[in-house]
Design goal:
The radius of gyration is 20 Å and the shape is globular. The chain is mainly beta and 144 residues long. It has one helix spanning 3-17; strands at residues 45-52, 55-63, 72-77, 87-92, 102-103, 105-106, 111-114, 127-132, 136-140. It has one domain: Immunoglobulin-like (Sandwich), CATH 2.60.40.
C-alpha cells in the first residue's frame, strides 16, 4: 500500500519529462525556413505572392513536390480580412488535366492549408495553381 503513491509520483515525473521540444535545424543558405512547423514539417519555402481579385496571398510550400505523391502548401492571406469561401489548388498545367484538384481549408484566421496530389507523369514545367472562386486563378513554381 505505501508503494502506490510513490509509483504514481514516479509515473507523473517521467511523463512530464517526455515532452518533445520543437525541432530546429541548421539555417539554410537561401530564403528557405527550416524550423519545424506546427504540423511537424521541416520545409517552409516562400514561393512568392499572388494577387487574385481582391485577395493578396503569400504561398508557402511545406513538403516536396514529387510525381504521384501528395504535396503540402500553406496560403497566407492579409490579416484582419475574411478568408475566401472556396479555394482550390492543383499541380500541373492551367487546365488541371490529369491533376487532382483539392479544396484548401481554413487553418487560422489568415491561413489556408491544402494537400494537392502531384500527377504520376509530373511535367518538368508543372506549376502549383490556385483558383479562388470569383477572384481568378494564378500559379507559382513549386520546388522539387
Amino acid at each position: 500500500m505505501t508503494k502506490s503513491p510513490f509509483l504514481l509520483s514516479l509515473a507523473l515525473v517521467l511523463a512530464a519529462c517526455n515532452r518533445a521540444e520543437p525541432t530546429k535545424l541548421p539555417a539554410a543558405q537561401s530564403s528557405e525556413q527550416t524550423t519545424a512547423t506546427e504540423h511537424g514539417h521541416t520545409m517552409h519555402l516562400d514561393l512568392g505572392q499572388l494577387q487574385l481579385g481582391a485577395y493578396t496571398l503569400q504561398v508557402f510550400q511545406v513538403a516536396p513536390v514529387e510525381a504521384g505523391k501528395e504535396a503540402d502548401f500553406d496560403l497566407e492571406f492579409a490579416p484582419q480580412k475574411p478568408l475566401p469561401e472556396n479555394v482550390r489548388g492543383w499541380i500541373g498545367n492551367e487546365t488541371g488535366a490529369g491533376s487532382r484538384k483539392v479544396r484548401f481549408l481554413n487553418e487560422t484566421a489568415s491561413r489556408m492549408h491544402g494537400h494537392p496530389e502531384s500527377p504520376d507523369n509530373l511535367a518538368s514545367d508543372a506549376k502549383f495553381w490556385i483558383d479562388i472562386e470569383g477572384a481568378g486563378k494564378g500559379f507559382v513554381t513549386p520546388k522539387r
